[in-house]
């Protein structure tokens, strides 16, 4: 049987809501066998942890025995790098695209040149040291300008953009690079991304997979049903799941 794990969660150290202990308590309640705390450690983002806060988090996560194993991770964009002295204490690096390093002026949220740049950014991120490629096709850095949108409207826009621009050729390049560099593709439960066909393609290329709730409110820790349904439906074997490949489970 595959044990449940959630390798993408936030605490109040960045833009989450609860403490590490709150996350662990909720994770245990939801039947997790493994949890990772992965706050934003990413210079250009407004809600991010500092080097000092990362040190504090290392203390909290490593300095105490919890009822389930707890990993200390960070979520970072391409610019964010873990300071060399702290590398040994950081178990997990999630690379997510929250912004484009080289800003591209978009004339609309559907500007093709902007999404070309996003696609290259994802491919570039897969060349950096890391363990997980976070929310590919989800939580896109939408160039909204002054547009007012709701959460659901943004998710609908993302699906439209994915259909329109995230073609098979790019998906194959992502799958191939991720498999080569042993970077797990995140099955992002909260946004239900990437799309199933994309996940299937990654599976065929022999990619590893991670699962994340990307919980910000404590209540969302361990809300990973969708991801585990996908794993079951596609019959993704344990060996292709990051915690098993790494020997964490
Ligand atoms: Zn993110
Ligand atoms: Zn996140």
CATH class: Alpha Beta
CATH superfamily: Metal-dependent hydrolases
Number of strands: 7
Tell me the distance between the termini.
12 Å
Strand order of the largest sheet: 1-2-3-4-5-6-7
Helical proportion, percent range: 25-40%
Radius of gyration from the alpha-carbon trace, in angstroms: 17 Å
Supply the CATH architecture: Alpha-Beta Barrel
Small molecules held by this entry? zinc ion
How many structural domains?
1
Note the run of SSEs as H and E: EHEHEEHEHHEHEHH
Number of helices in the DSSP assignment: 8
What fraction of the residues are assigned to beta strands by DSSP?
Answer: 5-15%
Explain what you see.
- Strand 4 (92-95), helix 3 and strand 5 (132-133) form a beta-alpha-beta unit.
- Helix 5 (168-180) crosses helix 6 (196-204).
- This protein has a single domain, classed as TIM Barrel (Alpha-Beta Barrel).
- A 7-stranded parallel sheet has the order 1-2-3-4-5-6-7.
- The longest helix is centred in the middle third of the chain and has 15 residues, at 151-165.
- It has 8 helices and 7 strands; from the N terminus they run βαβαββαβααβαβαα.
- With 249 residues, the protein is of the alpha/beta class.
- It binds zinc ion (ZN) (2 copies).
- One zinc ion binds at residues 8, 10, 75, 214.
């Amino acid at each position: 049987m595959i044990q449940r794990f959630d390798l993408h969660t936030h605490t109040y150290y960045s833009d989450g809501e609860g403490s590490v202990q709150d996350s662990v308590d909720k994770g245990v309640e939801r039947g997790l066998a493994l949890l990772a705390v992965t706050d934003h450690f990413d210079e250009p983002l407004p809600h991010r942890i500092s080097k000092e806060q990362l040190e504090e988090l290392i203390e909290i996560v490593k300095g105490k025995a919890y009822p389930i194993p707890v990993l200390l991770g960070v979520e970072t964009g391409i610019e964010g790098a873990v300071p060399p002295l702290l590398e040994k204490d950081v178990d997990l690096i999630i690379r997510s695209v929250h912004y484009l390093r080289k800003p591209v002026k978009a004339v609309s949220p559907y500007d093709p040149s902007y999404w070309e740049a996003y696609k290259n950014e994802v491919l570039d991120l897969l060349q950096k040291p890391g363990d997980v490629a976070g929310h590919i096709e989800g939580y896109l850095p939408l160039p909204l300008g002054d547009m007012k949108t709701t959460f659901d409207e943004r998710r609908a826009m993302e699906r439209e953009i994915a259909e329109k621009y995230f073609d098979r050729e790019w998906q194959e390049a992502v799958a191939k690079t991720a498999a080569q560099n042993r970077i797990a593709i995140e099955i992002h439960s909260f946004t239900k991304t990437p799309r199933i066909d994309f996940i299937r393609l990654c599976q065929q290329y022999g990619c590893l997979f991670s699962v994340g709730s990307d919980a910000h409110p404590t209540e969302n820790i361990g809300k990973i049903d969708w991801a585990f349904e996908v794993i079951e439906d596609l019959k993704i074997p344990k060996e292709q799941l990051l915690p098993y490949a790494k020997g964490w489970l």
